[in-house]
Amino acid sequence: MLVGIFYIIKTKYLYVPRLGIWGAHESALPVGRGFAPLHWTVLRKNRELTVSIFQLVEKMDSGKLLGQAKCPIQKTA
């Protein structure tokens, strides 16, 4: 499980683990694909953050979804 990673994992490593590599992304994938999803959520003054658990594949933020959880945002500056 990868969380908070900012670089792309080389394809040759993605399928070494039998069940693949899974990661967390702070957006409702596939809608919120891309960099800095948490920052965009705050800048857009959204009242809710969605965290997605997904399998890493060659195309960034495009793997199978394991699940998503919604978290309320109490206050932003």
Features:
single chain; 3-stranded antiparallel sheet; alpha+beta; elongated; 77 residues
Structure description:
This protein is an alpha+beta fold and 77 residues long. It contains 2 helices and 3 strands, in the order αβαββ. Strands 1-2-3 form a 3-stranded antiparallel sheet.
Taking the alpha carbons of the first and last residues, their distance comes to: 31 Å
Q: How many DSSP H or I helices?
A: 2
Estimate percent helicity: 10-25%
> Looking at the structure, what is the overall shape?
elongated
Q: Helix and strand string, N-terminal first?
A: HEHEE
Instruction: Characterize the biggest β-sheet.
Output: 3 strands, antiparallel
Q: Compute the gyration radius: what is it?
A: 13 Å
- Give average pLDDT, whole number: 89
Topology:
Layout: H1 11-14, E1 22-25, H2 37-43, E2 48-55, E3 65-72
Antiparallel strand pairs: 1-2, 2-3
Structure described in brief:
This protein is α+β, with helices and mostly antiparallel strands. 14% of the residues lie in helices and 26% in strands.
